[in-house]
Amino acid sequence: MFYINGRFLTQPMTGVNRYAYNVCKSMAALGQPFTLVCPKADFHDSYDVRGLNIVHFGFGNSHFWEQLVLPLFFVGKRDYMLLCFTGLGPILIRRKIMTVHDLAFIENPAWYTRAYHILYKFLTPLSVKTSRHIITVSEFSKSEILRFYPFMKPSQISVVYGAVDKKILSHPGCEETTAAEPFALTVSSIDPRKNFSRLIEAFKDIPEAKLYIVGSYNRVFSEQNNISGSTENIKFLGRVNDDELIRLYQTASCFIFPSIYEGFGLPPLEAMACGCPVLASDIPVEREVCGDAALYFNPYDVQSIRNTFLDFLGRIDELKPLLQAKGAERHRRFSFEESAKEIIRLAERCQHE
């Protein structure tokens, strides 16, 4: 029997939680039986849980629930496999498959609060060591796991990519872009590794171009990259719902992704699915995800960001249709259905090892 750690359903729809949710929905669509074990707390309204088999158990809704209460659910149970899709798994359970999205908290502790860094630095290696298998979301992240946790073997880690949410793919006119007011768009949580400070600096010298920033703060991140308010050509929109996000993707002149560290980086694929040309950081994981369907810049160089955008703007009639066509092909290489099939195969194999 497969069980899934469903704590994420009580939290907002972040990129990591979107991955977990879409894998669950795809497994259900494939007819794979499983049960989501969740805290006794309200689910966030971002999720449609119809058709999912859900059990509420225990008390609390924190890491305490995940590490100490959730294991009690499995007392007396045999021949089961627990799947954890959002970063940590209970260290008291060895019959589990855990997903490590990235190890940014090790790469640069200053990006996070001290409490978050200490917690994850302690729990992540223990969760990894006590898992039957590890899932990660890119070859880059797999290499990071092997670099930071040399006790792991490559055969113990499988890459299972993320993909574009079906809600975005099925949205009417998703691949038709019409810009009522020309603007560049960027979408991400507001945290230091997303590199918004350099992106804003680049656009300060382009007064004729508008930049819309979509994202929200999370208390786990340090405050060194706080941004707020708006200037004449830079607008901070905060968090928006999926329908508004899709509209922004569809109407933006281009999408800019300036991140300096990612496990996967889903927004560029979402932009491609909506017919929005992508300009992305020239870092290994974005090359892996975007391929030849993006223009790349040095994310550490404000002038490189600025020049890449200006070059795109100056040749927009040539570059926009080219990037739209390549993006439409590229995003289709990633599928939550195929990812769910791979996870089911892994879970079945690990359950009988």
Task: Describe the SSE topology.
Layout (H helix, E strand, L loop, with lengths): L1 E4 L9 H15 L5 E4 L15 E3 L6 H11 L7 E4 L11 E5 L3 H4 L6 H16 L3 E4 L2 H10 L8 E3 L6 H4 L14 E4 L8 H9 L6 E4 L19 E5 L3 H10 L2 E4 L9 H7 L4 E4 L2 H7 L3 E4 L4 H13 L1 H16 L4 H16 L2
Parallel strand pairs: 1-2, 1-4, 2-3, 4-5, 5-6, 6-7, 8-9, 8-11, 9-10, 11-12, 12-13
Helix pairs in contact: 1-13, 7-11, 9-12, 11-12
What descriptive keywords fit this protein?
alpha/beta, seven-stranded parallel beta sheet, 13 helices, 353 residues, six-stranded parallel beta sheet, 39% helix, single chain
Give an account of the 3D structure:
With 353 residues, the protein is α/β, with parallel strands linked by helices. It is built from 13 helices and 13 strands. The strands form 2 sheets. The protein has a 7-stranded parallel β-sheet, sandwiched between helices. Strands 10-9-8-11-12-13 form a 6-stranded parallel β-sheet, with helices on both faces. The longest helix has 16 residues. The chain starts with a strand and ends with a helix.
